[in-house]
Amino acid sequence: xxxxxxxxxxxxxxxxxxxxxxxxxxxxxxxxxxxxxxxxxxxxxxxxxxxxxxxxxxxxxxxxxxxxxxxxxxxxxxxxxxxxxxxxxxxxxxxxxxxxxxxxxxxxxxxxxxxxxxxxxxxxxxxxxxxxxxxxxxxxxxxxxxxxxxxxxxxxxxxxxxxxxxxxxxxxxxxxxxxxxxxxxxxxxxxxxxxxxxxxxxxxxxxxxxxxxxxxxxxxxxxxxxxxxxxxxxxxxxxxxxxxxxxxxxxxxxxxxxxxxxxxxxxxxxxxxxxxxxxxxxxxxxxxxxxxxxxxxxxxxxxxxxxxxxxxxxxxxxxxxxxxxxxxxxxxxxxxxxxxxxxxxxxxxxxxxxxxxxxxxxxxxxxxxxxxxxxxxxxxxxxxxxxxxxxxxxxxxxxxxxxxxxxxxxxxxxxxxxxxxxxxxxxxxxxxxxxxxxxxxxxxxxxxxxxxxxxxxxxxxxxxxxxxxxxxxxxxxxxxxxxxxxxxxxxxxxxxxxxxxxxxxxxxxxxxxx
Length: 514
Known about the structure:
Elements: H1 2-6, H2 12-20, H3 24-59, H4 71-87, H5 91-103, H6 108-115, H7 121-131, H8 139-156, H9 162-176, H10 178-192, E1 194-199, E2 205-210, H11 213-230, H12 239-250, H13 312-315, E3 320-324, E4 333-334, E5 338-339, H14 342-351, E6 354-358, H15 374-379, H16 385-395, H17 423-433, E7 449-452, E8 472-475, H18 477-485, E9 489-492, E10 498-501, E11 508-511
Parallel strand pairs: 3-6
Antiparallel strand pairs: 1-2, 3-4, 4-5, 7-8, 9-10, 10-11
């Protein structure tokens, strides 16, 4: 191993000097070795904490003689608290480690991968949390659970953001056992829903809540809608400040309205400063005349009354949308959140909290049928992530579409030779990709740019990459720039997976639609 020869761990200057002398290739290899060792040690720390909890339980065995009606709850809290104190970690972290150690006992393949250092603690927790709702009481249920465990490990091995991994696992669980996914949602609501407000530094507070998906989506949409309605592009406050100011009005804080801070007099979102309270007692006759410049028109000559910000974003319900698949192959999706179980979708649509729309269709590129295996064609229009993962795990990657960027088309279809995709094409790519397609990114596709996988040539559009479905992908702005820097070279494949190759190391990674 590189790190054994590289580091002595007793002389920090020597180790830093060794790091400075590494080539870029060796830096990558050494960093991965260190990361694997770190993950291996973290896994053992989790199980050492579990062993410590067992020792504490033995120490508390005398409590059985006390006859306390809630002894189990008291013992559990005492164990978590003692592990927290002895290891110098928070009680929340101690509880999560003990849960993870216990849950992994029923996922042997995942336990082995965790102990081997393939996954960090947080990544392993995500897998366990999502798979734990799957039943294992019968042989058939155990087979489903084993299958899900294998696919989950394959998903987690890829360059996927933790938030995207959770979404893919949720979709898989819903596809395999929708009734148990619904039960898991109800159990989560019973055990973990909360709203807490804690003191923070510098006159601030931390607001933390665990709420149903539709509540979170609704609040986010209301905040975004109010900001878009009231604030112009010249309001340069940080995004977080604008969001908190919008939340103040949405939650009904007395005397507060979100106003644009651009400083321009003509801004429609600007709210005049309120009059001092003492002026409310004066009659109109008591107020002095407002001085007006000669060039300012009289009120009757003006273009109209000063715009008043609308109340719509605060006073009305923001519509939610559930994307459904009539064939039943896709899990329903709450727009702005992700996959939800069918019972949840029925509740949202039936209550009027959400409207239902059909999902996007998907067609393989023409001219590529000879290179597609039967298993890929059998997939049809089904883009469920868990099935794509099964195909890759069992059969390998789908074949590339083509290297020309023409999407498998022999003649340019309408719009192919125009740089900008049509609105309909943009909406389709966003719906199909769901997230940024660059390795390791999880930004929603709706917030991304639509990029040509093979570069479009403005001077010679016929011989460049075309503006067609299989040459377009969602990339967030920073990753769009990285792609053009040539750090990773993309190749679109027939199932919309993208293989990214490093021209410097030859390494390849694969990204999937969200």
